Amino acid sequence: QVALLDRNAEAGQESKAALGEQFEAQRTLFIPCDVTEPEQLRGAFKKVIEHFGRLDIVVNNAGVNNEKDWESTIQINLTSVIRGTYLGLEYMRKGNGGDGGVIINISSLAGLMPAAFQPVYCATKHGVIGFTRSIALAANMENYGVRINTICPGFVNTPILQSIDKEENMGQYYSYKDEIKNMMQFYGVMDPSIIAEGLITIIEDDTLNGEVMKITASQGIHFQEYSQTPFMSSKR
């Protein structure tokens, strides 16, 4: 059973219809939602619970590339991910009457390295990784029963790549669009299906918590290794 959230109602209905051809129509739900609007997002979570009766998996994957309107990029790419995670925990954590579950936040390889012509996008994706790893530690220490992980894909064949060709998205970095395209050609562009494969891996492997999964055209699915273990005091 899957609920889809998107501010693009047409795309959302098309996705629901496509799933409806494979599964029973009542097993999917589309909710128009702008993730930057706190009450809309909270209302969407409530509708999911009302429709399906429970919540087991949350995927926070709304994302944009807009260096010109950088405030909205922060709101969509980072703030909404944080809010979506907290809403998911509110419904799923065991100490609050939930049954546990898994939250997956979508970052990017740009969250692990600098991106010269997408500095704000890069900052938001670094933020997603830092937040996810930190809240995963807290969830473990507090016995929430919820695992929280992040996925960092390289270039993926989705509409966000088209934003590189638009001055209204790239702003002062528009003149560098060819450099970004050269990077895409060098590193390769992946089909979204491999990202879905990584997503399923995280959902099914209940040993994964606080992990940063990297997905690239050259190496496929693998994990970021961190040498330093964060200090953790014992639970009070």
Automatic annotation (TrEMBL):
* One function term, GO molecular function aspect: 15-hydroxyprostaglandin dehydrogenase (NAD+) activity
Q: What is its EC number?
A: 1.1.1.141, 1.1.1.232
Q: Does the keyword Lipid metabolism apply?
A: yes
Q: What class of enzyme is it?
A: oxidoreductase
Give TM segment ranges: none
Sorted UniProt keywords:
Fatty acid metabolism, Lipid metabolism, Oxidoreductase, Prostaglandin metabolism
**Catalysed reaction, written as an equation:** resolvin D1 + NAD(+) = 8-oxoresolvin D1 + NADH + H(+); resolvin E1 + NAD(+) = 18-oxo-resolvin E1 + NADH + H(+); resolvin D2 + NAD(+) = 7-oxoresolvin D2 + NADH + H(+); prostaglandin A1 + NAD(+) = 15-oxo-prostaglandin A1 + NADH + H(+)
Q: Name one GO biological process term.
A: prostaglandin metabolic process
**Mind telling me which GO cellular component terms the entry cites?**
cytoplasm
Gene3D superfamilies linked to this entry: NAD(P)-binding Rossmann-like Domain
Function, as annotated, reads: Catalyzes the NAD-dependent dehydrogenation (oxidation) of a broad array of hydroxylated polyunsaturated fatty acids (mainly eicosanoids and docosanoids, including prostaglandins, lipoxins and resolvins), yielding their corresponding keto (oxo) metabolites. Decreases the levels of the pro-proliferative prostaglandins such as prostaglandin E2 (whose activity is increased in cancer because of an increase in the expression of cyclooxygenase 2) and generates oxo-fatty acid products that can profoundly influence cell function by abrogating pro-inflammatory cytokine expression.
Say which family it is in: Belongs to the short-chain dehydrogenases/reductases (SDR) family.
Report what the protein is called.
15-hydroxyprostaglandin dehydrogenase [NAD(+)]
Upper lineage: Eukaryota, Metazoa, Chordata, Craniata, Vertebrata
